Amino acid sequence: MPSVQQLFSLESETALCTGSTRGIGLSMTLALAEAGADIILVQRDESNQTTKQQVEALGRKCTIYTADLSSKASLKGLVSRITDTDGHKVTILLNCGGIQRRHPSHQFPDSDWDEVLQVNLNAVFTLCRDVGAHMLAREPDATGRRGSIINIASLLTFQGGITVPAYAASKGGVAQLTKALSNEWAAKGINVNGIAPGYIDTDMNVALINDEARAAGIMARIPAGRWGRPDDFKGAVVFLASRASVYVTGEVLLVDGGWMGR
């Protein structure tokens, strides 16, 4: 029987991560590296080397592949290049890339709707499908495990939000996609789960933070008494990526300071 430390260890694992250059995605990627995983980063370009340098400072390998999540053509063949051409064995997929667009719903432009759905949902499906196929094509380990997929959802997976219909629709879709894939792949050794962040102090929420009345209303409902921080996600992502969560699948884990229980 493995020890608790062994259950949470990601030694000899390789994680493919999107959205890792800042905020929650950066913290979660570094957490995976701290737990022992090598990292493959998907970025629009290689100009931002900060995450790569931080991962390597932890003693882990890190490789950047360039792709634009907003472009179906850019994503085509990405996983094949990583796994078949370059020979990486991906055992963890972290889908954290996401964008936000705000407009009154009756004025929401088609172009923004399409972009949000492509980045937040279509790209998540494409990467889940292609990495899932890569995992299914190899033999499971001695415990029957082939890998872990972690998709980043939102409070708007459960709530509608205001002036963000595309984001709410995309994150609702992420939860249902997570459940659908889990139903097919859990018995084959692939755990598929989601993490739903609450209100977190990141660049994506600057508009809310700067709206004093709205920010005060949000704070009043958070039982923990503060906005979340990116580092609040380190434990959750390592848990879902590791053997510690071997019997947890199809779930969306709320990390929200108690918001949804209010």
TrEMBL record:
Annotated protein name in UniProt: 2-deoxy-D-gluconate 3-dehydrogenase
One Pfam family linked to the record: adh_short_C2
Family to which the UniProt record says this protein belongs: Belongs to the short-chain dehydrogenases/reductases (SDR) family.
Record keywords: NADP, Oxidoreductase
InterPro entries: NAD(P)-bd_dom_sf (IPR036291), Sc_DH/Rdtase_CS (IPR020904), SDR_fam (IPR002347)
Keyword Cell membrane: no
Protein source organism: Neodothiora populina
